[in-house]
Amino acid sequence: MTVPLQAEALDISFKLVPAIIVFLMMASFLVIGYVFKVADTEGMWVAGRGIGNIENGMAIGANWMSAASYLGLAGLVALSGFYGLAFIVGWTTGYFVLLIFLAAQMRRFGKYTAPDFVGDRFNSPTARALAAFTTLLIAYVYSVGQARGMGLVGQYVFGLDIIPMIVVMMTITVGYLALSGMLGATKNMAVQYTILIVAFLAGVYVVGFSQGYSTVLPQIEYGALIADLGREFSAPFVNQPFYLWIATAFSLIVGTCGLPHVLVRFYTVRSERVARWSCVWGLFFILLLYWASPAMAAFGVDLFQATTGASAYAAEGGMSGAEGDVIVVLAAQFANLPTWFVGLVAAGAMAAAIATTAGLFITASSAVAHDIYTELINPDATQRQQVLIGRGTIIGMGALVTVTAFNPPALIGELVAYAFSLAGVVLFPMFFLGLWWENTNRQGALAGMVLGLLIWITSIINSVLPNYIGALGAAAGEGGALVPIYAQYVPPIGAALIGTPVVFIVTIAVSLVTPEPPLETKKMVRQCHSPEPMGQQETAADVVGDNTGGGTPADD
């Protein structure tokens, strides 16, 4: 069943002060994008590799704090109860894996994009094309949830139907991204993070204090509500198999480490040390919101019941999926806070959605312009041609995402989780093995990536498309899946629990029975683990190329 297009409990009307707040915020994004506009590929894709650790940490936080985190995470907890905690566990744990195993090593490899790493590490244009296709697919699925969040919030602020609001907000977002590239997007992300975290924490503190839920630490004090809301949070979890909780958390952990728009942030910094520290700062900035999100969900559920008289999980008359998606705004509205304050909370959600959309669209545009057009189609492409192709990709992707967001097949948080599952199955094994096992070769990578794509795509066809396409829905019947046993063990939201280990095994097995990669490739892998510092614009390939003495660089 498709989620409703409108959150019925929202006060859908034009609100002058919130509208002014959103207008000024969007105008500032356009101005920053213009001031930091770029004309070369270095600025377009990796911001000139000159971003510092705190600024990059804020960009990581904003890049990460999508509508799924700002709106959808609280909504998932509100609608799914304790099952929703799997999202908090998965989305935070993944950053520890990134910090330990990938951040600095990726920076030392030193390319432009995630497909760039795959293509050069495995010496394969086909692997590059598969990684670019996967990057586009991730950006598309992930961005639909962001566009949906923008529309819901715009609906509350401007009082219009959700469809024109999605069109307007996506048009503004696409406009500043096509102009600014990664450099302007990074500068904007620091501003966007400041807006979203101030708005969210202000909402949690004011709602908690004004309603008597909490005083100085709502992140902890909300636990007192659990006694009253115990059934509300446990009832939906009772109906979810524990396997699904584990599968969801695991997929989100490995998916975090495979997301191209997250990993590209480590290409934008000055050095591997800055890459590590920006990951630490990013995790801290993320913690500020994730620690408070369950509190906002608890406040919202209790206020929903008090205001509407309906249980959040009642079969009839309960909270709809769209209302769960905007529970953060609803909580402030039901607390009878001033309209301008509710508008501030809504503006934070808009900033979160735009920041993540920026990162996704930049990675999608670089995948098309750099990895497909320049590397595979026209190696003699000028920088101007690459930038134009990249901007055209942003516009095309924006149009496709906008249309899909009119009638999405799932909740915001679920849509984002599908993208994480894809990244965890297809890209994470390539990044991890590519950096940590020098004998991983082209044949192994191709076998693993093709298998990973098949696992994820069949899972989506089996379990998601029947809810979206009438003919498949009729074939699936009441169970909602074409093959119920496959849906049980390889659910789209947790496909990586089985898919990722299988891809690892196949990639390793095929690599063992086929020729080893070239010595130069092995040297690049070793260089990624060297203790020797590298220049700001230097890459592992540069170091290997400069090593004319015949020895292996940093052979540790």
Q: Cα distance, first to last residue?
A: 55 Å
Structural class: mainly alpha
CATH architecture: Up-down Bundle
For the sheet with most strands, the description reads: none
Binned, the helix content reads over 70%
Q: What ranges have pLDDT less than 50 throughout 5 or more consecutive residues?
A: 1-5, 548-556
Number of structural domains: 1
Supply the number of helical segments.
Answer: 26
Mean pLDDT level: 82
Tell me the strand percentage band: under 5%
Characteristics of this structure?
globular, Sodium:Solute_Symporter, Na/solute_symporter, disordered N terminus, 556 residues, Sodium/glucose cotransporter, disordered C terminus, transmembrane, Na+/solute symporter, 73% helix
How would you describe the overall organization of this protein?
The protein is mostly helical and 556 residues long. It has a single domain, classed as Up-down Bundle (Sodium/glucose cotransporter), CATH 1.20.1730. It is built from 26 helices and no strands. α1 packs parallel to α17 (339-377) and α4 (67-80) crosses α10 (226-238). The chain is globular and about 70 Å long.
Give a concise summary.
By secondary structure, the protein is mainly α.
Give the topology.
Elements: H1 16-35, H2 41-46, H3 53-64, H4 67-80, H5 85-109, H6 114-121, H7 125-158, H8 162-210, H9 218-221, H10 226-238, H11 242-256, H12 260-263, H13 272-290, H14 293-308, H15 321-325, H16 327-334, H17 339-377, H18 383-405, H19 412-426, H20 428-436, H21 442-463, H22 470-476, H23 484-489, H24 496-512, H25 519-527, H26 540-546
